[in-house]
Amino acid sequence: MLNRRILRIKAFKALYSYTENRSLSLKELEAQLDRSCESTRDLYLFLLSVIGPLTEEARSRIEASRSKFNPTEEELHPNLKFVENAIAPLLSQDPDFSRIISRKKLAWDQYDVLLRHLYDSIRGSGYFARYMQKEERSLKDDAALWADIFANEFEDNAELCDILEDLSIWWNDDLSYALNWCCRTMDALGKGERWHLPPLYMSEIQHSAESDQAFLVGTVRKGYNSYDRYEKDIVSLTPNWDKDRICSTDLALIVAGLAENEACPGIPSKVTINEYVEISKFYSTPESRAFVNGLLDKLINKR
After folding, report:
1. CB 90: neighbour CB atoms within 10 A?
2. What is the pLDDT of residues 182-206, one digit of tens each?
3. Using the 8-state DSSP alphabet, how is residue 240 labeled?
4. Is 32 helix (H, G, I), strand (E, B) or coil?
5. Between 112-123 and 51-66, two packed helices, what is the crossing angle to 10 degrees?
6. What pTM did the predictor assign?
7. What span, in angstroms and rounded, lies between the C-alpha atoms of 174 and 35?
8. Do 101 and 95 form a contact (C-beta atoms < 8 A)?
9. Contact predicate 159/127, CB 8 Å
10. 166-173 long-range Cβ contacts below 8 angstroms, 24+ apart
């Protein structure tokens, strides 16, 4: 599930934690790393489990309209295509999915206000109108609708982001990645495949001999054990800067890049440098791109 880009982000964040708190032990850092990785898959499961509650929200709206004192003809005979979508029962009746959702206590029960707002937004969208107007029904179309919902309704939803922040310190940063996996799951279900829990690392999915877990743990261990040496090398190349004035984020990014380069010599140094420069665009200052690129290039290529 986790690709190399997100693993690099997690390695950087772990080393950033160590930059900010040098009393952390390697054992504590690796435990934090494990929780961070597992949390991404938990977020994917939490988001996927919204399908049942959103379907029920639609069903309850229909029943409420039918029960009105003087319902309209449309309210008496509504379009049931969405509430009868095939994806909701496919997941709710899957024993593996139900078991893991229950075991992890992932539930939307207390977020009824968000569910109402989500459904209102979905109903007002063009993709939903096109889906409802199409007379034919198919598993593929139902799955495509849910993929549209995941792609359009969640990422910039401030209400959802507040909830995710309360539930886990890891979740907001992983939202885009988890949503992408929800869309991939819809594509697989639309083709008639059964749901299965994705392995935590992409190397397990691709049956690669090169372990992503070893890549991640090796990078963090090397960064932890060589931190003082890396810091001295960085300071030696920035004589006009006191080490306390170097941005902690930039320091952690450079340490992560140096650690990966030493721990994983099979990865081209240009790839490592480019990856951490890209990550710096999202997690550091506007000037960090050039700073991280310059320091990593000098420190890696002088070895």
Report:
1. 17
2. 999 999 999 999 999 999 998 877 6
3. T
4. helix
5. 80
6. 0.92
7. 13
8. no
9. no
10. 167/46, 168/39, 168/42, 168/43, 170/35, 170/36, 170/39, 170/40, 170/43, 171/39, 171/43, 173/9
Token digits of residue 303 = 């070895």
The answer to whether the CB of 67 falls within 8 A of the CB of 199 is no
List all residues 6 or more positions away from 291 whose beta carbon is below 8 Å from its beta carbon: 250
The amino acid that residue 38 corresponds to is E
Name the residue among 263, 266, 261 with its Cα closest to residue 295. Answer: 261
What pLDDT, in 10s, does the model give residues 78-135? Answer: 888 999 999 999 999 999 999 999 999 999 999 999 999 999 999 999 999 999 999 9
- The size of the chain, in residues, is 303
Q: Which two tokens stand for residue 72?
A: 């309209």
Which amino acid does the sequence have at 205?
Answer: I
Q: Token digits for 143?
A: 């799955």
Measured between alpha carbons, how far is 253 from 217 in angstroms, rounded to an integer? 16
d(CA 162, CA 152): 18
